[in-house]
Amino acid sequence: MALDQETGQVTGTRDKDYNLIWFAEASLSNALRMEVYSQDAERAGDSELAEFFRRAQGESRKGAEQAKKLLAARLS
Fold it and tell me: 63, 23 in Cβ contact below 8 A?
């Protein structure tokens, strides 16, 4: 079976729901990664880059929060 045809038979989770779960996890993981990157930039004395990573972290958090709200609404 091709992955482009998967609709939940293999995973037990419909594609659209799986995609939302994946997006939430990826956003949270990225927020953690941006923390490390901003700290690395701070240690290197590059406050401009550190701020860039902090803004990116904020956007990742925002995406994760939106995904979590959608998941909660759909699971209740």
Answer: yes
Full-model pTM? 0.80
CA separation for the pair 27, 63 (Å, rounded):
6
Residue recorded with tokens 């939940």: 8
CA distance 46 to 75: 43
Token pair belonging to 21: 């779960």
The percentage of the chain sitting over the pLDDT mark of 70, rounded to a whole number, equals 92
Mean pLDDT of 54-59: 98
Distance CA 26, CA 62 (A): 12
DSSP string, 50-73: HHHHHHHHHHHHHHHHHHHHHHHH
- Angstrom distances, CA of residue 76 to CA of 10, 23, 46, 69: 24, 19, 45, 11
